[in-house]
Amino acid sequence: MEIKKRLAELGFELPPLPQPRGAYVPGIQVGEFIWTSGQLPFVAGELRYRGKLGVNLSVAEGYEAAKLCVLNCLSVVEHIAGTLDAVEQIVRLVGFVASGEGFTEQAQVLNGASELLFALFGEKGRHARCAVGVQELPLGAPVEIELLVRVRCYNNLGSEEHFHT
Amino acid sequence: MEIKKRLAELGFELPPLPQPRGAYVPGIQVGEFIWTSGQLPFVAGELRYRGKLGVNLSVAEGYEAAKLCVLNCLSVVEHIAGTLDAVEQIVRLVGFVASGEGFTEQAQVLNGASELLFALFGEKGRHARCAVGVQELPLGAPVEIELLVRVRCYNNLGSEEHFHT
Amino acid sequence: MEIKKRLAELGFELPPLPQPRGAYVPGIQVGEFIWTSGQLPFVAGELRYRGKLGVNLSVAEGYEAAKLCVLNCLSVVEHIAGTLDAVEQIVRLVGFVASGEGFTEQAQVLNGASELLFALFGEKGRHARCAVGVQELPLGAPVEIELLVRVRCYNNLGSEEHFHT
User: Under CATH, what is the fold of the domain B2-17+28-150?
Assistant: First the structure.
């Protein structure tokens, strides 16, 4: 439970497994890869931030929202892999930032997520990234983040069979 | 031809292989993965819907457009894999929804695609998903959908060599 | 150095390895796959184009910007794989085009990247593609391109260990 311990030391805790807002699942594992669904800044089932960067939210607020998104992604990874200690590499992060006309600091916003990943996982937390400023996100969220993660081994429950209900 | 039969029972048929609108191919297979290009709501070579959600299109129309996009994705998968029965898992769906200011029901729109996948493939149809509201899509389409699919085995023609002309 | 030679014959040269604008790396290799980060139209460390298609930039300018983005992607691939001759397949290209209201020629813009890939790599350069028109991109760039590439083998330095500093 090394990563969970580091997370607590940094003052964070994982949110509960995010509930899909439609006919999809929070994430899928195939072999050593886990793709999470795009995650929003939920805390205890409530969207913590709403709106757009460059309209009603500051870069500092967007930075916090990006942290919350990636914590939700990690909750998905933990649920699928069994433990965050199975993470071998954060491969790719895509961050969509709801952006008002002329707002071009998407990178600064997403650093909230990227810096947390590096603080948690060290070298394994370094990732490729796309930062995009979009018109609107589901439920009026200001940030949405998707992760692709490589994990050490198959989970006990067997690849993508995990979210069957 | 189990999936094709279920598709017909649900009242759908696959559109012809979508023609690329540029210097790319409809999809690529590498090993057990097929990535489709982003697909638009084409029917018989014509874009069935144009415009934006929250401007000139209702959620119900967007839902239908999302179905058409994913049918075009499945046409690509069938063309590459030989049969939709080779699908082992719909892994990831990314849906871009052309959205007017303040439209935040991207999830409801994309359920048109996700629910069809689940109806067709059952548990194998459950997928990770990103829903994003964007400014404009090619040709004025209201929805664009990209699929990542895991298939059972290599096609007869050999991985990504498929679209060579 | 076959690809580098063809690049020179076509009148291009690779830009220096693009510097990340945040807490991420230019690209990640896992096994035979390399994911690049989203790349902007940088030349010698300067953004060559700024603005939006359909506002202050023409399709021809966007086409040139897309070429520059993909050259930056290829600089990342070369840095990770050691040589562009290791490229087995350009698998997937995602192109985000900063688009003014009503601009729907994202495909024509991204052909700047796709046609260059095909000229350079031939059949190996054919790829799946998503074209999306977005509100804003980092630093005011008009185009951002992400590549997924399959390479022949592991690099000498060992998969994603490459960008450690």
Answer: 60s Ribosomal Protein L30; Chain: A; (3.30.1330)
Interface chains of chain C (3 or more CB pairs under 8 Å)? A, B
**Alpha-carbon gap, residue C162 to B47, rounded angstroms:** 45
Cα–Cα distances in angstroms (integers) from residue B91 to residues A122, B28, B139, C109, in the given order: 28, 15, 27, 29
Chain B contact for C63, CB < 8 A? no
Whether residue C41 contacts residue C158, with contact meaning beta carbons closer than 8 Å, is answered with: no
pLDDT surpassing 70 at residue A163: no
Res. B128: pLDDT tops 70: yes
Helix (H, G, I), strand (E, B) or coil at C128: strand
- Tell the CATH superfamily of the C2-10+29-151 domain: RutC-like (3.30.1330.40)
- Pairwise CB contact (< 8 Å): A35 & B103: no
The whole-model pTM stands at 0.94
**CA B160 vs CA A91, B74, B150, C77, C92: distances in Å:** 23, 17, 14, 20, 11
Which pLDDT tens digit goes with each residue over C56-115? 999 999 999 999 999 999 999 999 999 999 999 999 999 999 999 999 999 999 999 999
Cβ(A109)–Cβ(A100) under 8 Å? Answer: no
Closest Cβ–Cβ partner in C91, C110, C117 for B28: C91
Neighbours of B144 (CB within 10 A): 28
Q: What 3-state DSSP class applies to B82?
A: coil
Which of A115, A117, A133 minimises the CB distance to C135? Answer: A133
Q: A108 — contact with chain C (CB < 8 Å)?
A: yes
pLDDT at C1: 82
CATH architecture of the domain with residue range A2-14+26-153? 2-Layer Sandwich (3.30)
Between B25, B38, B140, which is nearest C104 by CB?
B140
Section A124-132 average pLDDT: 98
ipTM given for this complex: 0.92
